[in-house]
Each structure stands twice: as C-alpha cells, then as structure tokens.
Design a protein that fits this description.
The complex is a heterodimer of chains A (327) and B (205). Chain A is mostly helical. Chain A is 73% helix and 0% strand. Chain A is elongated and about 90 Å long. Helix content of chain B is 79%, strand content 0%. Chain B has 205 residues and is mainly α. The termini of chain B are far apart. Classes of the chains: A mainly alpha (327), B mainly alpha (205). At the A-B interface, helix 1, helix 3 and helix 4 of A face helix 2, helix 3, helix 6, helix 7 and helix 8 of B.
C-alpha cells in the first residue's frame, strides 16, 4: 500500500503539477516499483471514469427577468451612497473633534488659555512667594491650588502670556506657605468676576515684578478678614460657592466690583495701591480682556452639540448602511 | 466570443442584459457543478438560481481575476447552504441522494452523451454515471467539491484554489485524498461496470 504522501505525488503527477525534480524522482521510482505503477494505473482509471461523467443540460434558462432584477438592484444602488454618507459623517465628526481639541488647545497656547490652567495657581502663589517663584520645584498637587486660585479674577491675558507658564510650575510650591489660605480667601471675590472661566491672570503678572508682591502679601490678610468667605472653604471651591459662580452671567459687574486686587497688581500701580479696591477700579478699563474667556464657554458647549449631533447622524447612517448591506 | 470584461463592466453599471449574457455563457457550467455537488437536478437548479441572483446582487464586489472561478465559488457556497439545510432534514436528504436522476434530467443527460452508441452501451454508460455520482455523493462535501472541480469540470489547481479559497497545497492534498476514496469506491463497483473498464483498458494503451 502506498503512503498518502506517495499517493499525493501520483495524483499531482497525473495533473502535471510536480516540479521537474520531483517528477524525475517519481519517474525513477515508478520504473523500479511495480506496486507504485499499479497504484498510478488505478488512479488514472479513477480519474478517467470521473471524466466520463456526461455534462447535464440545465433544465431552464437562469437569466434574471427584468422585474426580478429591479427588486434586486435597488439596494445595490443604495448601498454605495449610504456607505459614502456614513464615511462623510464620520469624517465630519472627526473634524469636529479635531476642531474642539484645537479650540481647547489654541487658547492654551495663547495667553488666555494658559491662565486657565496655570495662572489660577500662579496668581496667589506668585504673590505669596515672589522671590522663590523661579526656583521652586513644582512638587505639590496642583489641583487644590487650582481651586483656590480659580477665583482670582480675569485680567490681562497678554501679560499672562509672558509669565503664566513659568509660574504655574512654581506656584504649587508656594502653597504650603501660611499665606496660602488667606490668599485663597482673597481670591474668591476676584474669582467671582470670571467664575469658572479661564481667567485670573493679573496676579500672574505680579510675579514678573517681584518686589510688588510684598505689598500684595501684606494686603492679603487684610482682605481675608473683610471677605465673608472663610479661608478654608474658599480653598475648596471659591468659584462655585460665590454667587457669581454662574460664570458668564455676571462677569462684568463683578469684575468692576472686585477684580481690583489682582488688577491693581499690574506693574504700574502695584507698589502704591497695594491691593486697594478703589485704585483697582480705576484700572479696570485697562483690562477688557477678562471678559473674553467667558465667551469660550458657549463655544465649547456648541462643539459638544455639534459632536453629539454628528455622532448620532453617523450612527444612524452606519445602521442604515449595515441594513442595506445585509439584505 | 463575447467580450467578458466589457460585459462584466456593463453589468456592474446596472446593465441587466450584459449580466444575462454572462448567465447564458456560464449557466451550463454552474448548473453542472451544482448538479454534481447536490447529486440531483432539483436542488442543483435551485442552487444555480440562487447563485446567479447572488452574483447579480454582488456584481460590484467582483474585483478582477477569473470570473468563472468567482461564479463557481458563489454556486459552491449556495450548495453548501442547501446541504446544511438538508442536514437538518435528513429524510429528504436520503431520498434526494438515493433517487437516480430521472425524468427531464436523465433525458438531458442522455441527450448530451454520444449519439452513436447502442442501447446496451448507453445503459452501461448510464450505470457508470450513477455509480460515480454515488461515490461522489459519499464523499464529504469539501472533498466532493474539489474532486468535481478537478476531474469533472477540468479546472487546474490554481483555479480550484481561486474557486474554493483554499491554498494550492491544500487543493493538492485534498484532491488526492478525494481521489483515493473515489478509487476505493469505484473498485467496489468494478464488477458492475465491465464495459466501461474495458473501454478504459483500451484508452490506456
């Protein structure tokens, strides 16, 4: 009995599917081995028997009648269009995501956005520790600081651009200072102006003028006492607790009323004013910028709506495409 | 000779007439493959019809290569589907396989065989055909498909691979196993078929 391997060789040999060397080897063996020759003859007979099978005539014509073809063709035409629409919707969704991402990034690159993350921390911290600012490593968790600083009202974005980045890193280090609590307390009033919006940069400008901070520091404790907010609480969530926490609604008046402490910190007046509200009011006109960040709020929510809408459209189209494909 | 690529392209653009010319060109081969896989005409006609409908629906998925292999693959799959359905209804399956082709199919088969043979030769040839079909039907479906494509339809390994989606090496080994089984099966029926084997003895020389 031949091995399956040999039988496979014989089978391929009859189909002329062996390589030249395999063929030569097999033919040499066939010349010597009678059993292999008999096996080959059997196989050849089997194949020839199969080839005697007559062709059968189709019982009918299988051409598709136009009416049947019409019912079949419809989904065939829908499918590519649906597929295209689905991919377009997905593309639009990706563009929306990219746009949203870029929108959240772009401000970050610009002065204002940096303030969103950094200046909030930087502002109070910088005022507290002006000399240390540059050198202190950012070791402390920035989160709590961010909350306390969140309130430090919106101010000069342009200046923030210059200093915010650096200070953000250094700011946390200032936290442990005893002044931190009191400062955070002072922050809320300022924060009311901008609410949760990314603002509060004016303090960031302070560190730039190191000497100024001393006066501000002095002012901080005073402020804490005057403010209704307990210092500890303020640190937790100044922005939300304050009535003006509803970000966009009241930034204008509140800034006028209370944005002064940081505002007054602007290089020009910082030394003399020492965080005095009255003087700050005078400065306000110079700081129209703080009102812009709140504008970005409706924009981001708009992005959310666009993304949600596109995602729903894409999902619906994908479902329709799948159904069209399925049938 | 028809311009196959042009017809395919027209069919892909919704030209039903072009598609139906392709159907006419291939329906005999498609039906024959289905007939040898299914073992009888009714199921073969159903599978053929199903295959051409499916081909029409999916004509835009055809991406070059052998159009024949593409069609044969579709009808093979239609046959597999039908065989699976029959497995769930085994009684019908047994009946279908054991009943010899009669009526229109048997006549059609006869019409295509040589005309100048005696009634006795004709009867022998018919007997042989039945025996071979019986042996084919006894094979597992995936072996049967390969054996029919190679030895009944005369496709080469590459086209069988394209039709079945198997690798060339798999085609080669599966075909050899199918042939080994068919040889054993046909040797059991050898006594039934002296005339045919006599014919082959002659052709061998």
């Amino acid at each position: 009995m031949t091995s399956p391997q040999d039988f496979e060789r014989l089978s391929a040999y009859l189909d002329n599917a062996l390589s030249a060397s395999e063929k030569a080897r097999l033919e040499a063996r066939l010349a010597k081995e009678a059993e292999l020759r008999r096996e080959l003859d059997d196989l050849r007979q089997t194949i020839q028997a199969l080839r005697t099978l007559p062709a059968v005539k189709p019982p009918r014509n299988f051409a598709l009648p136009a009416r049947q073809a019409a019912t079949l063709a419809q989904p065939r035409q829908f499918f590519p269009a649906l597929r295209l629409a689905t991919s377009l919707a997905l593309l639009a969704l990706m563009v929306a995501f990219a746009g949203d991402f870029a929108a959240s990034l772009a401000p970050a690159a610009s002065p204002m956005a940096v303030s969103y993350q950094t200046s909030r921390n930087a502002a109070p911290a910088a005022t507290l520790q002006p000399p240390a600012v540059a050198m202190m490593p950012a070791t402390l968790p920035p989160t709590t600081l961010a909350e306390t600083a969140a309130g430090s009202g919106g101010v000069l974005p342009t200046q923030a651009a210059a200093g915010a980045m650096d200070y953000s890193a250094t700011a946390p280090s200032a936290l442990p200072m005893p002044g931190a609590a009191s400062l955070s307390a002072t922050a809320p009033p300022v924060g009311q102006t901008s609410g949760a919006a990314p603002v509060g940069i004016s303090p960031a400008t302070l560190p730039a003028e190191g000497p100024i901070t001393a006066s501000v520091l002095a002012a901080a404790p005073r402020l804490t006492e005057t403010q209704p907010m307990p210092a500890g609480k303020a640190a937790a969530a100044p922005a939300t607790e304050t009535p003006t926490g509803e970000h966009n609604s009241a930034p204008v008046q509140s800034t006028e009323a209370k944005a002064q402490p940081p505002a007054e910190a602007t290089p020009a007046q910082a030394v003399e004013t020492e965080a005095q509200p009255p003087t700050a009011t005078a400065l306000l006109p110079q700081n129209p910028a703080p009102f812009q960040p709140p504008v970005s709020e409706p924009e981001t929510s708009l992005w959310r709506y666009v993304e949600l809408g596109l995602a729903l459209v894409a999902a619906a189209l994908a479902l329709a495409t799948w159904l069209a494909r399925k049938r | 000779m028809m311009d196959e690529p042009a017809l395919i392209s027209d069919a892909q653009h919704g030209d039903l007439e072009a598609f139906n010319r392709l159907v006419l060109a291939y329906q005999a081969q498609v039906y024959n493959l289905a007939y040898r896989i299914m073992g009888e005409g009714e199921a073969a006609a159903d599978a053929t019809q199903e295959a051409f409908i499916s081909a029409y629906k999916h004509i835009n998925y055809y991406r070059g290569g052998s159009f024949r292999a593409w069609l044969l693959r579709i009808v093979t799959n239609a046959c597999y589907d039908e065989l699976r359905r029959r497995k769930r209804r085994p009684v019908a399956s047994l009946e279908a396989l054991s009943v010899a082709p009669e009526g229109p199919e048997a006549e059609a088969e006869a019409a295509l065989t040589a005309h100048e043979e005696s009634p006795a030769e004709h009867a022998e040839r018919r007997e042989l055909a039945l025996a071979i079909q019986g042996c084919l039907s006894a094979l597992p479906a995936e072996m049967r498909v390969v054996a029919v494509l190679a030895d009944v339809q005369g496709l080469d390994y590459a086209e069988i691979a394209a039709t079945t989606g198997l690798a060339l090496g798999t085609v080669k080994s599966r075909l050899s196993r199918a042939r080994a089984r068919l040889r054993d099966c046909l040797q059991g029926a050898r006594e039934l078929l002296p005339a045919v084997y006599r014919l082959e003895e002659e052709s061998k020389v």
